[in-house]
Amino acid sequence: MDLDRRQFLGTTGLALTSLGLFTKGLSVSSPGTGPKVGMCDWNLGPPCEPDMIPKAKDAHLQGIQVSVGIQPDSIPLRDPAVRRKYLELGKRYGITFHSVAAGRILNRIPLKSEPQSAVYVIDAVEAAAALGAKNILIAFFGVADLRLRDATGEFRNVSDGPFNSY
Fold first, then answer.
1. pLDDT at residue 25 above 50?
2. How many CA atoms lie within 13 A of 80 on its CB side?
3. Are strands 135-138 and 96-102 parallel, antiparallel or unpaired?
4. Which of 73, 88, 139, 162 lies at 20 to 30 Å from 80 by C-alpha?
5. How many angstroms separate the CA atoms of 21 and 10, rounded?
6. What is the model's pTM?
7. Of the ranges 4-8, 11-15, 29-33, the best mean pLDDT one
């Protein structure tokens, strides 16, 4: 079906109106009107750094996924003072903490093979509870991949379920 410009614009306008885009808007700065927009702390600057919260506000974000830590000998979110600073700055700048990430550390020290990694998961759970986060990122990439490799180094299928195409 060929549409001329007038038909295209009319159809597009009707579609946008039906989605409510003209009346409600998709403004990132409109709290409570739709999904919140956030990002990982490592995209704002150094991970595990509460001083990046004003930068998140400047970017019109509503939330940050906070890293639990990236070095085994330095887990900033274990420190109650760091957690308090996150909460104080979050309140001041209107930023929430929707998720805590135990990603980079678990990708380097895999949960599947390194028993001490269970402690980093506990750190993430405790930090999430302290910050009011409802989600935790536990990553399994690279050496932390849960899939098994065959003798050639290729991943082999270990599932008969819906994810067996990997």
1. no
2. 0
3. parallel
4. 139
5. 15
6. 0.69
7. 4-8
